[in-house]
Amino acid sequence: MITVPFEARRFQSTAAYYLRYRIPYPDRLIARVAERSGLKRGDHVLDLGCGPGQLGIAFARLQGAAVTAMDPEPEMLAEVEAGAQKAGVDITIRQGSSYDLGPDIGKLHLCVMGRSFHWMDRPATLEALDRLIEPGGAVVLFHDKSVLAEPDWRGIVEPLAQTYSPERNADRLLRKSKAWAPHEAMLLASPFRNLERIGIVSEYTRDIEDIVGRVFSMSSTSPQALGDKAADFEAALRAELLAAAPDGKFREIVEANGLLAFRD
After folding, report:
1. CA nearest 125: which of 167, 97, 150, 154?
2. Tens digits of per-residue pLDDT, 219-261?
3. In sequence order, which residues have a C-beta less than 8 Å from that of residue 246 and are 6 or more positions away?
4. At what angle do helices 166-175 and 153-164 cross, to 10 degrees?
5. CA-to-CA distance for 193 and 111, rounded, in angstroms?
6. What is the pTM of this model?
7. In 143, 144, 145, 173, which residue has its Cα 20 to 30 A from 258's Cα atom?
8. Cα-flanking dihedrals φ and ψ of residue 177, to 5°?
9. What is the spatial distance between Cα 233 and Cα 248, in angstroms, rounded to a whole number?
10. pLDDT tens digit string along 202-211?
């Protein structure tokens, strides 16, 4: 099985961009997942690979969950702390990764992950979570899928990423190859093999600043990954985005979804 090698500081330069420019998961999606999973106020939710804590903060704010946010990146955890304070919720913050899942975390009703599962040793992570998630609980993988982008800004970013950040881009291409087992296959081979998906489709209008910030929030095109090529990359990206959208506006239709994985 192919895995992406663990790198603790992979996202250290993306923290400033992630929360501001990534499209948030809709409140309706959080509510639907909570309802389907039987989440009650005070239940323990682990936001694993939490980044700036979008999911954990949402589950604490909307559902009254007792949330633990866990990430290897200190800059991301600082964003969690600031975001939780702004939202008026209490969140337990732990520095660590999926390799640090142990009984000291406590029993869980849910483990939620937002675009982070692919960075983990997936079978080992699910095995560890099987020891932590209480009966009736679930693993929930959150993701967003582009339905439409007019103009197609991703088609602009991909060749630039290959030119300016070829090594990081190779990791992204690996996850799109036939050699990469989809998350669904990994879950079906685990104790969490009863799968359901809930999706919410939304429309957004984004401008060039939004797109540039979104691109810098990605590990393959982060300031860290680009290094001394970052300024040239940004100049080329802005020029091509403006050529594609002279009014500076990009229309996006996005499906945000949660893949719920229960035990049989």
Report:
1. 97
2. 889 988 899 999 999 999 999 999 999 999 999 999 999 999 9
3. none
4. 130
5. 15
6. 0.88
7. 173
8. -85, 165
9. 18
10. 999 999 999 9
